[in-house]
Sequence to fold (219 residues):
Amino acid sequence: MRMVAEMGGLVEQQIAHAFDALANKNAALAYQVINRDSAIDALQSEIEDKAINIIAQRQPLAIDLREIISALHISNDLERIGDLAKNISKRTIAIEDATMPTSLISGFEHMTHMVMGQFKTALDSYVQRDVDKALAVRNGDLEIDAFNNALFHETMVYMNEDPENLVASTQILFCVKNLERIGDHSTNIAEAVHYIICGYVPESERPKGDTTNFYPLNA
Fold:
């Protein structure tokens, strides 16, 4: 659990720094986010190796086995979130000196705060073994999807108003989609916590409200 929590802390920093780099057009910070991703990958590999060794040597059962399996799933989601933060930083570098309207940056900031809140609650639910927090994350993903849809369409309008905005607006669309995916991975973490505590993943269909058809490139 300690290593998973440590990995979560690093990923949380990556998300925050990726947003700061975009909002302030800070290419140096964006490069830092990109370069620090290797530390997250290394932690994931370490968690996987330790989990495999425990399973092989101790042959855990019941909740102990669920703990190990969930740690593997959660570390994979954390690694993917780290990749998405890195991807946002790559987009920041691509935007360079393009002028972006304040409303788009403000919208992106608000969505980042929403996603960060979901992510932190998901991590707290894991550390505290709090099933209510895990379910709150799962149910809260719908709100992120709704804001993602609104910001997506606002960016499309801005793009259509002036063809010169096409390149920068396209990069922003990718960044918004990356944030939405971070929210999805946070929900995956919450469902893994539910599995640890209750022994099963919630059976009801996950609430989903994303209607956009714009998908990010692989990190």
Observations:
- Residues 215-219 have pLDDT under 50 and may be disordered.
- Residues 2-198 form a domain with the Methane Monooxygenase Hydroxylase; Chain G, domain 1 fold (CATH 1.20.58.220).
